[in-house]
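Q: A reviewer asked whether we had any structural model of the full assembly, not just the individual parts. We don't, so I'm hoping you can provide one. Inputs are below.
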Amino acid sequence: MNYLELLQLSAPEVIVTVTMLLVLGADLTVLRGKSIAVRFNFGAMLSILGCVSAALLAFTRHVEADPLNGLLVVNPASDFVKATLLVLTIFTILISTSGKFTDHVGEYLSLILLGTIGLMFLVSTEDLLMVFISLEFASLALYILTAFNKHNEKSAEAALKYFLFGGMSAAFLLFGFSLLYGISGSTNLHEIAIGIAGKGFDPLLLVALVTTVIGFGFKIAAVPFHLWAPDAYEGAPTPSAAFIGSGSKVASFYVLAKIFTLGFVGAEGSAVWHGYLSGWTPVIAIIAALSMVLGNLTAIVQSSVKRMLAYSAIAHAGYMLLGVVSNTSVSASAMMFYVITYALTTIGAFGVVMVVEDATGGDAIANFNGLSKRAPGLALCLMIFLLSLGGIPPLAGFIGKFFLFSAVVSFGENLGLLWLVILAIAMSAVSFYYYLRVLKAAYVEDAAAEAPAIKVPLLTFLALVLLALLVILLGVAPGLLTRFL
Amino acid sequence: MLAWTIYITFFGVLVLMLLPRDNARAARIVALLTAIAGCAIAFVGSIQQVQQVDPGQVTTIVKVPWIPAIGANYYLAADGISLMLVVLTGLAAIAGILFSWNIEKRTKEFFAFYLALIGGVYGVFLSFDVLLLFVFYELTIIPKYFLIARWGSTRKEYGAMKLALYSFVGSHLVLIGLIAAWVVAKGQLGQPTLNLMDLSQVHFTTGFQHWVFPLVFVGFAILAGMWPFHTWAPTGHVAAPTAGSMLLAGVVMKLGAYGCLRVAMVMFPEGAREWQWAIAALAVIGIIYGAGVALVQRDFKFVIGYSSVSHMGFVLLGLATLNTIGLDGAVLQMFSHGIIAGLLFAVVGRMVYDRTHTRDFNDLETMQLGKLLPFAGVTFVIAGIASMGLPGFSGFVAEFQVLMGAWTVFPKMTILAGVGILIGVAYTLRAIQKGFYSDAPPKSVDHDHPMEPITVAERFGAVMLIGASLVIGLFPGLLMNWIEPCFKSPLFARLLSGGAQ
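A: Here is a predicted structure for the entire assembly that you could use as a starting point for your response.
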């Protein structure tokens, strides 16, 4: 194994890294003194070019390699997730081009790319050490992205909160990982599984399990580790919030599922009705149930749309965790379908919120009043995104839910996990109410008199329309995505 | 061919969205042409199918794989019941547009939502894949909400939200049942399927049907206005704009009843037999309660709203009989009520309320509307007579068959339902008298603002609906020939065998 081979295997990451350096360099040299719009557009084009080529490379190469005993695992599945992450990054960058929150364009774009690199390494490893390093690497970028609006105190507050909670969760994660290493003598997931096999469910493993769950619970904002999320989503510049809610979520769920299904083999336990056995599935089942209930019920009372989206993200994390609980290959791919479509939808929703926020000065529900008249195209996009989040067919969110729930109910013999699905479906009926409230403002309420039409920046609008079309397309023809999962 | 009812309606939505914003006239014409085209296709397609094949047979229109991983097909088909409901939808769509010709506020959006709703309804009636049916079913929720919340009256936002949430909760109950049934069916057949024809042949265990049937049935019956889940109906109907209440009563409530019959009862026949009594009891309570409450309303539109609950009770009672004659009656009642309720709402909402701006009987009594708007008066009297179930109109044939079917199974409840009919006569006569032909002393008539005369569009719509009810009342065989054979098809075999003899 020489370094050249290593570079070849990590070529997508390398391309993004080089792009990141180019964007930063160009912005600091030739683009100095140009207007922010020009710098943003040029930087965005460059970043997108890099992301597209990296995504194409990851998508088209069919390599299976594991040269470093799990540190860097390249296979079609992880490559597909990488390509997805890059696509999400492209959309995030597209909607951020009209941003007015910063004049440090180069730094902003390169931080997004850096975060993406961290996430890309995260999905292509089966080693705890590498998981931890790349997770922290991506998180550091996200902390800074959250704080990027220097004119807004809330942004700083949100970033600090995010950072403190994130640091604590990293400590938990590291603690859990070190115990796992202690029990099994390895950091490789497969070897850990062998190491803990046959030892029964001893207290040490229990502690390791719980701290790992806590660590990831923070990352994916599941109840009761969700407290940072609403503040971070609300305070962060909107594109940063979109990035936290999309790319980082996809990668976190992918690796979470991997750690539990590969590393904790034999410690599953059981979460089926009347068939409880201690292990990691009941723990995650409880977290999932709490997230669905609390996230949805709290979202109802929010008046800020970004906070509402944050609580809805918590609720959605709960649905996604169901896919981990049932722990079959079908449910794993259903979960990935759900996470990916959710991520696309969420970027779109945040994109619309950003445009409205820039035009009206706030993200309260009342700021959306009369949107259908002030910006019909934007309002239609918003409707598609929110209805998809609410699970209305024929949009991607509905099909995702159907895949996920039917996969979870299929688990075991006697519909044992049906109780979780019933809870999820009941809560998703609740969620419809708060999505509809925003749409009511956009379509039913009238805007204040003399409210001018909202001018939607071209690139952002293009991205939103593309996202809306994708959400419809993946709902009508989900086979386009499922065959890769 | 029938599939084009769906496509052309959604195409109409697309055209409307592309129209310039201020051209109300163009929007109306596009909407009307779309509805007429849809109705014509429905008529011609139905008659063709009936002539070519036995109407009892489920005839495939299109069937292509959609999501093979879960066994979902894009599977449209029709039997006589679907055909009848598709034709009803076509008629209701045209009538609704004729009675909302006077919408001036954001006309284009109004008709876009309106046609989207109609398209979804066509889709439900033609789907024989349960997932597809569910997709179309939920697709109707959104336009309903916006039609009421944006263009409605009295407590419109409350009414709209209530309707949307009730529908959504109902459809989620259905979703739980469908997912559970899908999983069990997959276990039995060895491969996933969502095809209604396959699912209807799966033998679900009695214990499973015992809890899944009420879930799915109630989920659909919420939208059919089953007591005690009916409370969305009066508020929703009253809040909706005229075309909205016409569609709600005319076709949307039928979606619920259709789902009960087509999905819940066909898939879980043993569950249906087990819960037969409960459904019948709720239906009869709905019939009497709806009629009783309608009798004491002061708001004209609430009378019609509650009468819908009462009339839909007959549909549910007919379904609960589980014998051929009762089911025949239930299905025909869907058609009949769709036409008559649409007409009643048209009179109250468009002809009266849009001109007088009141629906309060105390005000209407002093207006002598029978003299001012003779056409409205006569139309309401005819619609009222039809609604009471007098021979010669479709309501009679339908309700009579429901009662005949019910008599053999639950005689006591049938007598109670008969009492409901009597109360129905009372509230209809009261509404006719108070609304149009009161002898209360007239208030001074405002001569500066004479009432706008009844327009051609209104006359046309009213004549069309009265005609439809009359034709079916005089020649029930026209539709019975479509409905009756359906219950001999294998789809309903397990439901009817072993049921009430």
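A: Points you may want to mention in the reply: The two ends of chain A are 30 Å apart (CA to CA). The CA atoms of residues 67 and 175 of chain A lie 27 Å apart.
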